[in-house]
Amino acid sequence: MIIVPRLKIAQLCEHYLRPFFRPNRPHYKVWEILAALEPSPRLAADLRINTDGAQAPNEVDEYWSGHTVQAFEYRSKLQSRLWLAFRFQLYPQFKEFMELYGHHSGKTVVDFGCGPGNDVLGFALYSGAARVIGIDVSPKALEIARMRLALHGIGGDEVDLILSSDSTHEIPLETGSVDHVYCEGVLMHTGSPETYLREFHRILSDGGGGHLMVYNRDSVWYHLYSSYVLKIARSRFAEFSDMEVFQRSTDGENCPLARNYTNGEFLSMLRTAGFEADYVGGYLSLHELKIMDEFLEAALEDERLDQSHRDFLARLESDREGFPTFEGKAAGIGGVYRIRKA
Question: 293: closest CA among 322, 258, 327?
Answer without folding.
Answer: 322
